[in-house]
Amino acid sequence: MKPVIPPPPPTAPDHAVSRLRLARLAASAKPFVARGSGGGRCAGCRLVASHCVCALRPRLTTRAGVCLVMGDIEALKPSNTGWLVADVVTDTWAFGWSRTAVDPSLLTLLADPQWQPVLVFPGEFVPPERVVTALPTTAAMGRKPLFVLLDGTWSEARKMFRKSPYLDALPVLSLHPDEVSNYRLRRSARETHFCTSEVAALCLALAGETHAAESLAAWLDVFTTHYLSAKRSAVLDRGSEAHLRLLALDASPTEPGRPASLA
Ligand SMILES: [Zn+2]
Q1: How far is the CA of 228 from the centre of ligand 1 (A)?
Q2: 249 in a structural domain
Q3: Ligand 1 mean position to 47 CA, how many Å?
Q4: C-alpha of residue 43 to centroid of ligand 1, in Å
């Protein structure tokens, strides 16, 4: 009888947040120990191996890109959802933020003429003349939207916004979705503070990429279901509404969207 060889455990995905995480770990004097990380975590999804979600990860082709500017240890947190954005959106970049230095690659990206960068931030904290609620019209002229998201705690995001002069020239896209955040992984002081992958999904929807937006939202829901099941030692329902929605979206891929909401 042939021995049954189990498949190798998933390895860390080769995407921007995964690479930033490895770089941050390498730069760390002390090993980072995530809360509740006693059990072995999967390198592919950061969940305990029994709750690995890697087999369900969607990969999409999108026209829009996402640029994550991340707080110091954000890429190390197993609950960080910028990771989920990088899982799904091929053109995702991730940069660690520092008050005193900026990665030259970030400046190069922001200056790249194929992209129209917009900084996503709540409009109530921004002078009104900088705020837009739809994509700038240059996106309709061949430049692809690049959504710049400040990925960290709310206080980190505000600090990044105030102390990053290279972001000062960008238009600020203020999102006004009707629904309150579904994010259940971490509590926020602000009830309407969206998590990073929710913000990215709203941006993709605004760029006309409905399928990608729905896939990213479903991916967050599936990830959250696995994460909370592991955290609470509750039974994992692999046939949950979120799982079924993700599978249905995976079975109906569509072409990358065009900017549809510029009217
Ligand atoms: Zn995994």
Answers
A1: 15
A2: no
A3: 6
A4: 6
